């Protein structure tokens, strides 16, 4: 008898050994118990989590959190669920949450696909942000990209009717692929002919500034859930 082999899931990230600054380490230690949400294979009750009924926007891969904190500060009527695997980035966002006394941010430090699949209820999100994810430029690594047909279908299923998916990248080929995939995802409709102007609601990110310095054009995709 041939033993069955269980292959590990394909990840859209690689864990890097980043260093905490003292402020990030302190925020991580002191604030994660308050604002962090442990991964669990069961749906979140957003009303109980945030202590109110409000629209919920999830962000996959918030990096160092500067954009997330700014958007949350500018939109206090909306609750934000940030998903990130890298500890220094989590510590960085927690530092800003504490400094700005933000009450509308919660963080899950875990694989985003598992979080969306297992913890985010169907039709529960008002929006989903995916800003400058790893482009995985080598063709053999494209299967690791966040925007693929199967993941796009999952994301669409978690958006409430009228919700939106906002994707941004400075990698032209990834933008083209994402446009094709999202355009072919049932339940999603493009708000533009192809790429959308950057909405004022999305602040310029450090990755965006770096891409512009390198001569990369930044492209936004903004899709609505039917």
TrEMBL record:
Domain of life (superkingdom): Bacteria
The residues that the entry says bind substrate are 138, 170, 205-208
Q: Which PROSITE patterns match?
A: SAM_MT_TRMB
Q: Which reaction does this enzyme catalyse, per its entry?
A: guanosine(46) in tRNA + S-adenosyl-L-methionine = N(7)-methylguanosine(46) in tRNA + S-adenosyl-L-homocysteine
Query: Where S-adenosyl-L-methionine is bound, by residue?
Result: 59, 84, 111, 134
Q: Which InterPro entries match?
A: SAM-dependent_MTases_sf (IPR029063), tRNA_(Gua-N-7)_MeTrfase_Trmb (IPR003358), tRNA_methyltr_TrmB_bact (IPR055361)
Kindly give the Pfam families that the UniProt entry links to this protein: Methyltransf_4
List the GO cellular component terms. tRNA methyltransferase complex
Alphabetical list of Gene3D superfamilies matching this protein: Vaccinia Virus protein VP39
Protein's pathway: tRNA modification; N(7)-methylguanine-tRNA biosynthesis
- Keywords, comma-separated and alphabetical: Methyltransferase, S-adenosyl-L-methionine, Transferase, tRNA processing
* Function of the protein: Catalyzes the formation of N(7)-methylguanine at position 46 (m7G46) in tRNA.
The similarity comment for this entry is:
Belongs to the class I-like SAM-binding methyltransferase superfamily. TrmB family.
Q: What is this protein called?
A: tRNA (guanine-N(7)-)-methyltransferase
